[in-house]
Design a protein that fits this description.
Layout: H1 14-26, E1 41-45, E2 50-57, E3 63-72, E4 74-82, E5 88-94, E6 100-107, E7 113-119, E8 136-142, E9 148-154, E10 156-158, E11 161-163, E12 173-179, E13 185-197, E14 201-213, E15 219-227, E16 236-243, E17 246-253, E18 257-264, E19 269-272, H2 274-279, E20 297-304, E21 309-315, E22 318-324, E23 331-337, E24 343-348, E25 354-358, E26 362-366, E27 372-377, E28 384-387, E29 393-398, E30 402-408
């Protein structure tokens, strides 16, 4: 379980740095983590497959890495907590005999960590026989010190609809997580379902999901809208915003059109057919969207959780931003040119800015109006970006069996 680590000092020349970097990459140990500190570059993994999922900043100035690990043969959640000096504080490998696929990690205001994904084996016996036991939504909640508070599978079974099953895990997603004023998690995403037509016909499809989950693991409400099973997979709930007694849900409809509708907090949820959403204007569930075509999408994310709400699509060389009126739910969109090279990854920061990386290895931090606040060069293709609350930048890159983490200070220096 040893781990190779190097510190990078400014007095070494470019050739020495290249030799050092090559040595580190070639000597990644078979352990998942390092156990030293104060380095500018560390490596996780070894010969087993390792897939980066996310980097998330924590209230104490560090960050959490989420990944899928095949260290034990099957796929498991890997959660690693680092401080801002790249020192590992704790590591958890979560899984049993079957595959558990991590999809999203959320760190709450206390530093607790909600790991969201799919399970093909954990607690399957607790799922009713009326539901198909395959790729069930699975949640694991850890405190800031890595102790498990609870873990559970959650399935959806309403009348003739059994939600949670699919043979394509890549189509299941958790798109946004909100920590509301009542201390609940509000989660949006795309889920699969099976539809049973009497007496025995079964067909499948996908549904958008809105779920309110307490921090004790209780499902307090869930709201599901069927997407036509022949529709494209890009139709999904993509973000949720909180305002007073309701949640405003942003919905990406066919062809990257974006609309918004409200769900009352007092609503216990339920199932609504797709066409009902379109047709039933009296319930004000749907506002016809601003139409947008995105051929080169890199990523998308919520950029402002406070009114006016905003959501941003990042393309290879352009940004599209939507602003949602908190009162009328009207959605307006604007195109923002972004001439900083071909973008390969992007994220929002805890202080309301953007981080983007281009194909030449340059990382930018910009304001919401795309004014450059900082920029620096990295030697890796940045597939993960994070700005910690202590002001440092963490850049992640992976090759399938290793994940490399590079740390830059607030000035963008190693």
């Amino acid at each position: 379980m040893n781990f190779q680590k190097r510190s990078i000092f400014f007095f070494i020349g470019p050739l020495a740095y290249l030799i050092l970097l090559t040595s580190l990459i070639q000597s990644c140990s078979k352990s998942e983590t390092n156990f030293d500190h104060n380095s500018s570059l560390v490596c996780l993994g070894g010969k087993n497959k390792l897939e980066l999922v996310s980097l998330s900043n924590t209230p104490d100035g560090g960050f959490v890495l989420g990944a899928n690990s095949w260290k034990n043969g099957n796929k498991d959640f890997l959660i690693v907590k680092y401080n801002d000096r790249l020192k590992v504080e704790w590591e958890r490998l979560i899984g049993e005999g079957a595959d558990e696929t991590l999809k999203k990690v959320y760190v709450d205001k206390y530093g607790n960590i909600l790991a969201c994904g799919l399970s093909d084996g954990i607690a399957q016996d607790s799922i009713p026989l009326s539901s198909i036991k395959d790729l069930t939504h699975y949640f694991h909640f850890l405190d800031a010190y890595g102790n498990t508070l609870w873990s559970k599978p959650i399935w959806f079974d309403t009348l003739d609809y059994a939600f949670g099953w699919t043979d394509n895990e890549d189509k299941i997603s958790f798109t946004d997580i909100l920590e509301d004023e009542d201390d609940n998690f509000v989660i949006t995403g795309l889920m699969a379902y099976t539809y049973r037509t009497p007496p025995s016909t079964i067909r499948g499809g996908f549904s958008s999901m809105l779920m309110r989950l307490s921090k004790s693991g209780k499902v307090k409400s869930r709201y599901v809208i069927e997407i036509n099973h022949n529709s494209s997979f890009d139709q999904n709930f993509i973000a949720v915003f909180e305002q007073n007694s309701k949640y405003s849900v942003l919905w990406n409809w066919s062809g990257f059109r974006v609309g918004c509708f409200n769900v009352l907090k007092s609503d216990t949820g339920g199932y609504i057919p797709y066409q009902t959403v379109i047709d039933n204007s009296t319930k004000n569930l749907w506002n016809w969207p601003f139409e947008l075509d995105i051929p080169d999408l890199v990523t998308s994310f919520k950029t402002s959780a406070n009114p006016p709400f905003t959501y941003t699509y990042v393309l290879k060389n352009k940004l599209y931003r939507y602003e949602i009126d908190a009162v009328s739910n009207a959605v307006a969109g604007v195109s923002l040119p972004f001439d900083y090279g071909q973008i390969i990854s992007a994220t929002s920061t805890h202080d309301g800015n953007l981080m983007v990386a281009n194909s030449e290895g340059i990382v930018f931090e910009t304001s919401q109006d795309l004014k450059i606040l900082n920029q620096f060069k990295t030697d890796f293709k940045a597939s993960g970006l994070c700005k910690t609350r202590s002001g440092t930048y963490i850049i992640a890159s992976g090759n399938g069996t290793q994940i490399y983490l590079t740390r830059y200070n607030a000035k963008g220096d190693l």
